[in-house]
Design brief:
The complex is a heterodimer.
Chain A lengths: L1 H9 L1 E3 L1 H23 L2 H7 L20 H17 L3 H17 L7 H13 L10 H5 L3 E2 L1 E3 H20 L4 H5 L4 H6 L15 H23 L1 H21 L5 H8 L6 H17 L10 E2 L4 H4 L1 H16 L11 H4 L14 E11 L5 E3 L8 H7 L3 H17 L5 E11 L5 E2 L31
Parallel strand pairs in A: 2-4
Antiparallel strand pairs in A: 1-3, 5-6, 5-7, 7-8
Helix pairs in contact in A: 2-4, 2-13, 2-14, 4-5, 5-6, 8-11, 8-16, 11-12, 12-13
Chain B lengths: L2 H20 L14 H36 L3 H18 L9 H4 L2 H6 L5 H10 L15 H10 L5 H9 L4 H34 L8 H23 L24 H17 L12 H9 L3 H18 L5 H7 L1 H26 L12
Helix pairs in contact in B: 2-3, 2-9, 3-7, 7-9, 10-11, 10-15, 11-13, 13-15, 14-15
Classes of the chains: A alpha+beta, B mainly alpha.
């Protein structure tokens, strides 16, 4: 057994695979940043709002005013440097830190795919993605032909976890038995040419997409893994992600997933991709130093136990972390305790209305807050149905009005939420003074239970 | 399949689907029996918005004429004609305020017509200096429109005959001039917005897609915004003091100086809201495609729409229990005002959560990514 493990970690494979992964990842990240910037989202999501929803324990991560643009610039440049493989280890570290910092600034815009990018870039810190086809290899005048096999396997495993867990979480009664929320979303896509007014409106189509989506997510890692089904699987990946791109506003995510899954192919494919890129570079008169003779040894840092242990630990954490929601009582979709960072994608159509009441506990006089005074429309929308954000905003309001000279401030919320087509019901205990509650990883017993049961994961 | 074939095939699919779908097509023929969103836009535009604006345009023009008549011949009859035309136009206004879209939004139609309470000091200052910019200076929003007329027609003296005496005094001619300036400004701005609706009708009706800037989404968002702000907050919440630590604001009611119309106006606003939701024509009882019928189609029953309509009728009942003069109501028994506010808030919840969820209409005005 011990031998087997040692043997596994000694196995080597063509470094081209990691090089291709690095180039695609870097380019896509660079494009993502440019896209984000060009849509003016830096301004509207990070600079304009006066209040930001921090993650638990990360209150110190705040937007930097106009310097937020500098942060995005650094992030974009480091992504580019990752793509070309220049000072790779520093570049990917800077990318990981800046990207993660950006995501931690405000959880209003939490997306699983941003989390995915953070996880992958963290892994890449420990992987020799610059072994080949990088500026680094020219500078050090050494190009490595081989890399440890486990480095590639770890990325495959991570992708597999994303898909498989996304599939597992779809096994619930709302998704499979009520085709919710897909039914609502698909029907609202009436403006798509040809299919909008026809199959999008059909009940069977919503069910077909729900069940199809579940089977797709659960099986795709395995279909990609086996050589016989791989080509078919890749066509499925492309079709699936392009379809989601058309149906939903999910930005760069489909492209990231499509290009990432190329890692499942054999290394000769990656070799050919590199040759193709070389040809393009050649066309633009960027010549390779052919004098570089590939050497067989592997980067010393990479074989170190430190890297292996880190990656193994991270993979174990990734396998376990999504299950933490099982530790909480109540309905997961309703309470959202352990909902984030678990590859639960597109499972909920949730809308809320939350009105905050500032009460003077001595005189019992009160007034309602106009949320427009403090939050942007997208913040209001996200806050209205997420308990931790409601609490955080309640605290902010409390201290704001205290600082304005209000006395004996208590904050209550009249919050109503509808979930996956159910009628709205009261969400937060209206008698709970938010100022007396603290956010924690403990169960939030001030959330009123959902008057329904959703079976499954 | 070889690797090469796989890649070519995949690229082909990507390109095909991406291009075929990013090409906006407007030849959406009805292929199967399903809900046609464009019919909502057509019904709402042709049977509600355009007739309501036509009526309102006629009434502001009539108001301007009667003001001119009064300034030529200052007698009690002419003053009372102005007052009754003011009431007529103000009631009609309740049917157009929610359509704060396109030209109306661009020229601050809502702010110019109905920013209340009126700023008496600003009005007096404008009258005294005789120079004012009603068009582009937003400090003058509270010095024009219905609330300013309210002050000039009802707030200068305790009775109509005393008002007449005030206006008959030639020293007060600047007041008369200001009255005319405001009436004419209102009629001009209204005509501009109305003409724009006529001109852009076709473009508006054909923008039926589901994006942040499409007609149906903007209409729906404006409708909810009006229900929450224009109706719930402005007409009831602020006077009842629910935004000011229970300190009632009796001077912040609509038609404050007039003292008899605040309830009438709010009931009219509720009629407008309900009519829009149900798709009821402005000039008749005909009912067409609407948010309600769309909601019923999407949810496959009428539970949510019935709940929403119940909130409208419940609110109406509660409003009927109030005094004609809300200013009096908040000082005599404010709890009844708060009751209306709370009932309307229940309506806001249904519109914002249940309805928007079912219609998958986004309430944020940017198309941010989801996952």
């Amino acid at each position: 057994m011990k031998n087997k493990i040692a043997n596994y970690f000694d196995r080597q494979t063509n470094a081209a695979t990691l090089a291709v992964f690095r180039v695609f990842f870097g380019v896509l990240m660079c494009v993502s940043i440019v896209r984000f910037w060009s849509k003016d989202w830096i301004q509207s999501l990070y600079v304009d709002p006066s209040f930001h929803f921090s993650y638990y324990g990360f209150d110190w991560v705040k937007p930097l005013g106009v310097y937020t643009y500098v942060l995005f610039l650094i992030c974009g440049i480091s992504a580019f440097l990752v793509a070309v493989g220049y000072k790779y280890r520093i570049s990917i570290l800077v990318f990981f830190l800046s990207f993660t910092y950006i995501e931690l600034m405000d959880k209003t815009t939490y997306l699983n795919h941003y989390y995915f990018v953070s996880v992958i870039s963290f892994m890449m810190l420990f992987l020799p993605c610059n072994a080949q086809f990088s500026i680094d290899s020219f500078i050090r005048k050494k190009t490595y032909k081989m890399v440890p096999n486990w480095t590639i396997d770890s990325l495959k495993l991570m992708l597999g976890i994303v898909y498989f867990y996304a599939g597992l979480t779809k096994i619930n009664s709302d998704w499979l038995l009520r085709a919710m929320p897909l039914k609502l979303w698909l029907k609202s896509k009436y403006d798509l040419p040809f299919i909008g007014q026809t199959i999008m409106q059909q009940e069977w189509f919503s069910f077909f997409m729900s069940w199809g989506g579940m089977f797709y997510d659960l099986s795709i890692p395995f279909l990609l893994l086996f050589k016989r089904t791989r080509s078919f699987a890749f066509v499925l990946v492309v079709a699936f992600h392009v379809a989601t791109r058309i149906l939903f506003p999910i930005g760069m995510f489909p492209y990231i997933m499509i290009l990432s899954t190329i890692i499942f192919f054999e290394s000769n494919v990656h070799q050919r991709i590199l040759d193709f890129i070389r040809k393009i570079l050649w066309f633009f008169k960027i010549k390779q130093q052919i004098s570089l003779i590939p050497i067989l040894e592997v980067d010393r840092f990479i074989v170190s136990n430190f890297c292996r242990i880190t990656i193994v630990a991270l993979m174990s954490l990734q396998l376990l972390f999504p299950w933490r929601s099982l530790g909480y009582p109540g309905e997961l979709f309703w309470n959202e305790q352990g909902y984030r960072f678990s590859w639960r994608v597109m499972l909920m159509e949730k809308k809320g209305s939350s009105v905050f009441k500032i009460v003077n506990t001595k005189t019992n006089s009160f007034f309602y807050v106009n949320n427009n005074d403090f939050l942007t429309p997208i913040q209001q929308k996200q806050m209205s149905f997420q308990p931790d954000m409601i609490l955080q905003y309640g605290h902010y309001l409390g201290s704001h009005f205290k600082s304005q000279g209000h006395q004996n401030v208590a904050v209550f919320v009249e919050s109503y939420v509808s979930l996956n087509g159910r009628l709205s019901q009261q969400f937060i205990d209206p008698t709970a003074n938010l100022m007396e509650l603290k956010d924690s990883f403990k169960h939030k017993d001030w959330i009123k239970p959902l008057n329904d049961e959703i079976k499954g994961f | 399949m070889s690797i090469k074939q796989t890649f070519y095939f995949s690229t082909l699919i990507t390109l095909l689907i991406t291009f075929s779908c990013s090409d906006p097509s407007d030849s959406n023929e009805n292929l199967v029996d399903n809900f046609d969103r464009q019919s909502i836009l057509e019904n709402v535009t042709d049977n509600i918005i355009l007739p309501a604006f036509e009526d309102f345009n006629a009434k502001t023009a009539q108001l301007e004429e009667s003001v001119t008549l009064f300034s030529n011949t200052r007698n009690l009859t002419n003053l009372e004609t102005v007052q009754s035309h003011w009431v007529e136009a103000y009631k009609s206004w309740q049917h157009v305020e929610m359509f704060n879209i396109a030209k109306a939004e661009e020229v601050y139609f809502l702010q110019k017509m109905n920013t209340y309470p009126a700023s008496v000091s600003r009005i007096e200052n404008n009258i005294n200096t005789g120079s004012y910019d009603l068009d582009t200076n937003n400090n003058n929003w509270a010095a024009q429109g219905f609330p300013a007329l309210d002050y000039l027609l009802f707030g200068l003296a305790d009775t109509n005959s005393n008002s007449l005496i005030f206006y008959q005094n030639n020293e007060n001619l600047p007041y008369l001039n200001y009255l005319q300036a405001i009436a004419s400004q209102m009629s001009q701005v209204t005509d501009m917005v109305h003409q724009d609706w006529i001109a852009t009708r076709d473009a508006f009706v054909s923008s039926s897609e589901n994006t942040a800037t499409s007609s149906l989404n903007m209409l729906t968002n404006d409708f909810i915004y009006y229900f929450e702000k224009g109706l719930r907050t402005n007409k009831f919440g602020i006077p009842a003091g629910v935004f000011s630590a229970n300190n009632t604001r009796s001077a912040n009611v609509e038609a404050y100086y007039n003292t008899t119309q605040s309830k009438v106006l709010s009931l009219e606003a509720l009629v407008a809201v309900e009519g829009f939701f149900k798709g009821k024509a402005y000039n008749s009882t005909a009912v067409g495609a609407s948010l309600k019928s769309y909601l019923d189609y999407m949810t496959e029953d009428s539970t949510i729409s019935t709940a929403i309509i119940t909130k409208f009728t419940d609110s109406e009942q509660l409003i009927n229990m109030l005094d004609d003069n809300f200013s009096f109501q908040v000082t005599s028994n404010n709890n009844l005002m708060v009751d209306v506010f709370n009932k309307l808030q229940e309506g806001v919840v249904l519109l914002k959560t249940d309805m928007l969820s079912a219609l998958s209409i986004s309430v944020d005005y940017i198309d941010a990514d989801g996952d």
